[in-house]
Amino acid sequence: MSAALRPSACPGLLRIVPALDGGICRIKLAGGSISAAQACAVADAAERYAGGVIEATNRANLQIRGIGSEQTALIDSLLAAGLGPTTAAGDDVRNLMLSPSAGIDPHLMIDTRPLAGQILGTLQNHPRFHDLSAKFAVQLDGGEALAMLEHPHDLWLAALESNGELLLAFGLAGCPIDPPLAAVPLAEGHALVVAVLELFLELARPDQTRMRHLLAELPVDNFLQSLSKRVSLTAIAGWQRSQAPKLLHIGTYPQGETDLVYVGAVTPLGRLDPVMLRGVAQLANEFGDGSLRFTPWQSLLLPNIRAQDAPQVTQRLHHLGLLCSADQALAQLIACTGSSGCGKGLADTKGDALQLAALLQRQGNALSVHLSGCQRSCAAAHCAPVTLLAVAPGLYDLYFRDAEQPGFGALHARHLTIEAVGALLDARPRSHLDA
Question: Domains, the chain, ranges and CATH?
Fold first, then answer.
């Protein structure tokens, strides 16, 4: 597969970008799903052509880090495994997030996978959409209990029922928990996505690469008025997407089908090695349906496991080095690559996160904490309850999430060591630290 790739700082499967620890290749997974055979192909590529570091991203994709000179061989091996786009120019725009439990969640209103397939096909094969930014993203929410509802998207769609009819509410530059702008019948979901993207490309200047950039200058009512000439919109008032329970990506939970469960485990600080990934793939073949799913929490699910097999699967995931309990402090920590692999990182966030996890575990605190090596917040698209922003090696500014404050939230203290952070979090009332 060959084509001229546009310049971008974002890695893709066909565009390997440099970092301090070597090249980075990002493998975009359809709905976060990957077959066991494909997972083994990723493990083989990371072992053969790179440093063996595999990352689970906050958009339910995979990255291989530390790639050396054999970039073409790595790309060819992943393409041969069916992990590439249908068109080379379509790789950048395959940014569609689903629930990790799409199609199997007992609380879902619709199975989003067929519509997702339509949308992904159009994004890849419609040349006009190849002009979208590599960061432009769409979310399709089927009402699942397991859903990331805090990641902002340029366009989001969420299932709802009104007067016995299934609709898709939608919003722009936000999240499904925001008030929706309008809705369309479920059958018009694909047409809505096409209309929104085409209208965005017509109205946005080249420097307005995201929906929020356009809407900073164009009133949203004007956008909706133009959109209503292309698709029939239904006004909805008072509907609000219910908040999903927390931590459903860790542990064993029932599926919609009787006696089947999914088992979720967290990759430590978002990282796997080839042995871990091959081991999970083996479990998927042995106990599941030969597939696994990655999540926006940098974790993975094994779906379609018989309920009686879940304890054994969990035990083997634990032996592979994955985190299987929310009581493990490390399971709730997020850390970017940090100074060991990123030129912009001001601290060794991965190493500091391990130190903080050990402190929190001793204190009996499993808290949701995000360590960011710089202001870009690459590891978390949402605002965590607690954020540590690196200012120098081993030193962090501490923020607590505050709905009235932008960015990381309210600044609480400056230039703290990890030991000082641990002591401060231990002293603070737990109710102030919950997600």
Answer: 109-142+150-243 (3.30.413.10), 251-325 (3.90.480.10), 331-427 (3.30.413.10)
